[in-house]
């Protein structure tokens, strides 16, 4: 740190992204990317001709993409906000709707970026423990009078809360935003998007990074009452109006046209997940019931750290935190069936080797 940094940030603990090795030597099951490529239409949208137009700014309103997403989700374009990945939307939401008086609440075990944003904006936040079974207890968020942020399905557990439970949280916090982060919704969960008609405090956030195979393009969107969207637009136009580049906008539009392809991939991934859950349980793992494109699992024989490190030596990368209640758990992204076979084989080898020690 230099001596020029504002003192209000010197204590800030930044988010640590998962490892992104650039040499492609790993079976990469650590950051919940899709194992499937973007659709042919998306690849074709990034033509040499479009690249040659990069001298021009993109449309800051993202009008065409907003209209396509609105049609897909049965809402109006005024109900859609677009941004540079959904992290950007989370950032804007904390900036817009929280401060030292307006606090936030989120699960203690959830997406690691929530506490970072809360710190960034000096937001008074409560981190609510999960239930014994790792589920979110919706009652903890009723009448809390803070911005509620819940990933549904939650990460890294993969577990879901019901629409009725979300509705209770919305009803009992009418003067606060309830942000439901649906990054993993397409893998078998039930979206709460339709509730935006009934609740003007609901902010649903989704991303192209997981089910739509576009983590590298950086595109996220939010769906909410037009009032909330206008607030987010105000923040965007006060920070970086051109925050989505031309190529990403085009890719995002083409991906909406290819929705069937992506939803089919999501179904395939869900099927692979069910099989992986079964297989790992047979190998003596505890595996939580997941509705996401990852599973949260721990071995009954080998510590999380040993398993993570040995898998890495054998070329399989998974996500490991190694602290607290989740100390021995690994978060394993669902890859192709072939990638999962490699994971099972390497995990079996490790269990065998550790037994021999
Ligand atoms: C991956 C993820 C995001 C962020 O994704 P972007 O790539 O920034 O769109 C947001 N929330 C959760 C819970 C995630 O897992």
Automatic annotation (TrEMBL):
Tell me what reaction this enzyme catalyses: L-histidinol phosphate + 2-oxoglutarate = 3-(imidazol-4-yl)-2-oxopropyl phosphate + L-glutamate
| Segments forming domain Aminotransferase class I/classII large | 26-343
Extract the coiled-coil ranges from the record.
Answer: none
Q: Which SUPFAM superfamilies match?
A: PLP-dependent transferases
Question: Does this UniProt record's set of keywords contain Amino-acid biosynthesis?
Answer: yes
Superkingdom to which the source organism belongs = Bacteria
Keywords on record? Amino-acid biosynthesis, Aminotransferase, Histidine biosynthesis, Pyridoxal phosphate, Transferase
Q: Which residues carry this modification: N6-(pyridoxal phosphate)lysine?
A: 210
Q: What class of enzyme is it?
A: transferase
Any single GO BP term:
L-histidine biosynthetic process
Q: Which cofactor does it need?
A: pyridoxal 5'-phosphate
Q: In which pathway does it act?
A: Amino-acid biosynthesis; L-histidine biosynthesis; L-histidine from 5-phospho-alpha-D-ribose 1-diphosphate: step 7/9
- UniProt-recorded Gene Ontology molecular function terms: histidinol-phosphate transaminase activity; pyridoxal phosphate binding
Q: Which Pfam families match?
A: Aminotran_1_2
- What EC number(s) would the UniProt record show? 2.6.1.9
Q: How does it assemble?
A: Homodimer.
**What family is reported?**
Belongs to the class-II pyridoxal-phosphate-dependent aminotransferase family. Histidinol-phosphate aminotransferase subfamily.
The record's section on PANTHER family has:
HISTIDINOL-PHOSPHATE AMINOTRANSFERASE, HISTIDINOL-PHOSPHATE AMINOTRANSFERASE 2
Q: What is this protein called?
A: Histidinol-phosphate aminotransferase
Native source organism of the sequence:
Anaerotignum faecicola
Provide the taxonomic classification.
Bacteria, Bacillati, Bacillota, Clostridia, Lachnospirales
